[in-house]
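dumping this here so i dont lose it
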């Protein structure tokens, strides 16, 4: 059996998984709108919560996370035995997850205009670092709950991630260490606009609502 060919095909599958524009399709199917034209203009779960409301936003959050988790899970079809070392196996898992993340940020099914990838990244981390997720979740909530700034919570959790992996979980795998540091760099970089708004006091707070602005738009159209 040609495992190398299947591994390459799995990378394509991971990108296709990541490219499924959950929030964009949801908006077009149920509200006949493009999420990227409302709220923050982002196709991520946070903007979906704001535009579509709590239930729809939570569903999109879970589905986006599942994309990252499922991409990493593709490695199970080959198993660690098909790799020369444990570190190589982890590297391949991380590549699968990263390709799915790339698909979410640049989705082929949505004109290469996707979200920031936080939910998909969470799915990758859940698959590979479940203990670190709990630590980062606590940090996220500490930063988010008093401020209602999702961006601040996300960046705080991302910066905590390598600390959790290296110092608390004491990982000795180079691939895991490099990945954790990359996450701490990647998330703030994708939030550079949010950082500017935070510094100016103009960042949007997340207020949980049963119905989002999309429902209001739909009702207004129905009244005309």
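and the seq i came up w/
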């Amino acid at each position: 059996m040609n495992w190398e060919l299947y591994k390459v095909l799995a990378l394509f599958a991971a990108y296709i998984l990541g490219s499924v524009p959950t929030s964009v399709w949801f908006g077009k199917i149920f509200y006949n709108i493009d999420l990227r034209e409302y709220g923050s203009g982002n196709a991520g779960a946070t903007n979906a919560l704001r535009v579509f409301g709590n239930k729809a936003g939570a569903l999109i959050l879970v589905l986006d996370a599942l994309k990252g988790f499922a991409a990493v899970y593709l490695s199970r079809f080959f198993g660690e035995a098909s790799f020369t070392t444990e570190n190589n196996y982890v590297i391949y898992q991380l590549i699968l997850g990263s390709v799915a993340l790339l698909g979410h940020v640049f989705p082929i099914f949505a004109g290469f205009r996707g979200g920031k990838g936080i939910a998909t990244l969470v799915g990758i981390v859940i698959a590979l670092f479940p203990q670190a997720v709990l630590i980062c979740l606590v940090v996220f909530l500490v930063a988010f709950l008093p401020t209602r700034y999702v961006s601040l919570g996300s960046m705080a959790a991302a910066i905590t991630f390598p600390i959790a992996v290296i110092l608390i979980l004491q990982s000795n795998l180079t691939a895991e260490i490099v990945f954790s540091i990359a996450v701490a760099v990647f998330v703030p970089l994708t939030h550079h606009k949010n950082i500017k708004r935070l510094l100016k006091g103009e960042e949007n707070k997340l207020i949980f609502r049963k119905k989002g602005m999309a429902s209001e738009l739909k009702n207004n159209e129905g009244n005309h």
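Residues 54-73 form the longest helix (20 residues).
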